[in-house]
């Protein structure tokens, strides 16, 4: 696999799977992963970066059907991950963040027509305030009756990693607890019992937030890309963005067929970079697997090729060290690592989202 070819994945989303025929039957093997898709708006009239057109969304559903994917409800996948039960090789989950009205108008009819399950992560405040861009409780009830899970996205959609001025650590965690617990209470007041699933707003979390989520009894979902698997833990399950530049069906197909690296550990544990650190080093420890180690490559923002060093330990585990040779920009940049499968026409996939404040310590505005 050439370096140029992998760059195309990140820059344009173009990755042909020429050897993987769409009509091949899905193998049922002892695999423990699923591909969770994340959408926001399903519209051609909303911000492009967070939107998927209705036509493109239909193409995605056609792709899932054509490639033999089983679309499972999120709770079924979570139960399999928690119990480490094998799943069929091709399992996908459809999720929507924010509960936008375009999901009700443009996605729900297609999902109902095909009998597909889905999950909508919602914030109660804009619903209670009857914001025109958001679904109402009555519309969410209709979505639930059509096979949807309505789950938690916090009450007001805050940047959870940010402390307010003068706020202590204890006060910060109390505020986040209120965001989660009160939102769950609102959902259950209007729609009945629902699983304790939390999608982090903006995909932002810290080890302290993950511990809070675990202590409150929730399963957490991020916005970093990669297959959902036991290797990723239950407080930061990855999802593949399927909106904006990531809605290209060819790119999506490659990601849907990707498998997780057998990840044993990743350092640093926190994704938040402190002080003036702009060139973070990521260290991954991998168990032996079917990945082609010599072709493991990692990329930064704008498909920047990152320096990668690998070291095989006596027990067969592999230590992968990745860093950037130039400063990362403020915001939520990522390191994406891939490696071809040794015997199948697919990739292993891992992504780390970093959270970088401005050099003066203030946070970005988006």
Automatic annotation (TrEMBL):
Keyword set, alphabetical order: Signal
One GO location term (cellular component): extracellular region
Record has Signal as a keyword: yes
InterPro entries attached to this UniProt entry: Glyco_hydro/deAcase_b/a-brl, NODB_dom, Polysacch_Deacetylase
Domain NodB homology: 90-294
Subcellular location field: Secreted
SUPFAM superfamilies associated with the record: Glycoside hydrolase/deacetylase
Gene Ontology molecular function: hydrolase activity, acting on carbon-nitrogen (but not peptide) bonds
Database matches in CDD domains: CE4_DAC_u4_5s
Keyword hit for Signal: yes
Single Gene Ontology BP annotation: carbohydrate metabolic process
Protein name: Polysaccharide deacetylase
